[in-house]
Amino acid sequence: MAAKTTTRGPAAAKRHSSTAAKRLPAANSEDRAQRRAEQQSLQRAARRPRADAAERDDAGGRLFVSALARGLDVLGAFRAGDRALGNQELAERTGLPKPTISRMTHTLIQLGYLTYEPRSATYQLGVRALALSYAALANLDVRKAALPIMTRLAEDSQLHVGLGTRERLMMLNIESCESDALIGLRLPPGSRVPLATTSLGKAYLATIGEDERRTLLAELREHHGADWPKIEKSITKSMREMARQGFCISTGEWRKDINAVGAAIVPPNGGPVYALSFGGPAYLVSQQQLIEHHGPALAHAARAINAALGG
Question: Strand 258-265 to strand 170-177: parallel, antiparallel, or no bridges (unpaired)?
Fold first, then answer.
């Protein structure tokens, strides 16, 4: 029997083309809306909560300098990949009113921490801010101890390995080792990822002291709203994984196409807790691989870094 074929007439083809054209902008619009919502969520998580002067003084003590804190908030608004920011973007990221932003940026320009571009009315980090960044990284013991171990892990696995610590409700990447694979996760030093939905953040939450964790969970509950019950359940699961096997898993929680594992580093002489992440695109890194291979490898790397620090 001959195979049956169907041929579209010109009118049908035109209708099909028109329908497809209508669907494409709608999909693109949905993607843009989702990316915009994710960006706004990251901005809120990195923002210092609003408070009046009395509340800030109570929180920081009588020696707390509110004006200095606001200036540092402005500097902290800049992230990896930002070429320049205007007053509106700075106000959105810091939660500070525009008149305050204007005073802070004027002072920071005079001191060399910011530079100003008149044509675009935007600011960039100045030389003195860069000098502080390089000095902080150069003197960070955990980075020195972690880098060779992270490099070997990235080369052997062809996956991304990151080292970070908490900044408000985000995790700040302070070191990143990329494989030479053409496709992979790219998170350069200075980039930020969510605290509650990444393997990096959940490993951190599972390792810190009970008092700090209780405070952070309350802030995260307020930040995530209706999504919190599902997120809290995942954090609780990660805490059990960390206690049992030394690593925790995140499959599609931060981004649906990213799978990763996390482990923690606790410097023996005190100081902040750090976390390691290890992962990549979901089609390259299955959950089974995370459990059987990548997770144990990352937990071993974390123990090796702790040993290098004297732990």
Answer: unpaired
Element (H, E) at 192: strand 192-194
Helix (H) / strand (E) element for 16: namely helix 10-46
Q: How far apart are CA 194 and CA 176, in angstroms?
A: 16
Residues of the chain with pLDDT > 90, as a percent, come to 66
**Do the beta carbons of residue 165 and residue 141 sit within 8 Å?**
no
Query: What pLDDT digit, counting tens, does each position of 237-248 carry?
Result: 999 999 999 999
> What secondary structure, in 3-state letters, does the chain show?
CCCCCCCCCHHHHHHHHHHHHHHHHHHHHHHHHHHHHHHHHHHHHHCCCCCCHHHHHHHHCCCCCHHHHHHHHHHHCCCCCCCCECHHHHHHHHCCCHHHHHHHHHHHHHHCCEEEECCCCEEEECHHHHHHHHHHHHCCHHHHHHHHHHHHHHHHHCCEEEEEEEECCEEEEEEEECCCCCCCCCCCCCCEEECCCCHHHHHHHHHCCHHHHHHHHHHHHHHHHHHHHHHHHHHHHHHHHHHHHCCEEEECCCCCCEEEEEEEECCCCCCCCEEEEEEEECCCCCHHHHHHHHHHHHHHHHHHHHHHCCC
Tokens of 223: 């930040």
CB 164 within 8 A of CB 277: yes
pTM of the model: 0.75
